[in-house]
Amino acid sequence: MKLRLSLMVVLSLFALGSVATFAFAADKGISGKDKKFVMEAASGGLMEVKGGELAQKKGQSQEVKDFGARMVTDHGKANEELKSLAQQKNITLPEKMARHHKSMIDKVSKLSGADFDKAYMRMMVKDHTKDVAAFKKAAQEAKDPDLKAWAGKTQPILEQHLEQAKGIASKLGVDVEKVEKEGQKGAEKKQKHM
Description:
The protein has 194 residues and is mostly helical. It folds into 2 domains: 1-29; 31-192, Ferritin, core subunit, four-helix bundle (Ferritin). The protein is built from 7 helices and no strands. Helix 3 runs antiparallel to helix 6 and helix 5 packs across helix 7 (176-192). The longest helix is centred in the middle third of the chain and has 29 residues, at 113-141.
């Protein structure tokens, strides 16, 4: 009887130790805010690639087509880097873009010619305005050092995209200042939820 009781005590302590170890390991993982940023960046990256593919096919202006090609290349690379980082952190990235990103793509995919060019570049200015703000914040405030470094490395590329998008959009007659303000409001709203 004493042997059985001792065995039960040992097994109970072992089980408690395993639970405590698991809880400690979970605490060492990526923070909730960092994970939200990763998931949003992954979805946004998918949207940028899909949008870039559309721009190459449906764009009327060569500048829009070339910008789309750059989005596919740059965001494709960033997506692969994020995927590798997420695997290291045991985070499963979404295979499909979030609803709000899909909605953006669905809207522009229905357009063609000059209408597509304007809508796509407007979307790029607005989205990159939000992205620059989110990546800047992550580069400064992310708890995970690897994520912080990746965000800091990626932010200047997004800033280049934004400047290029603003230049193209302006040539197409888009009110860039207005769109940028919309993007800033969207970024502020998003920051409150992160």
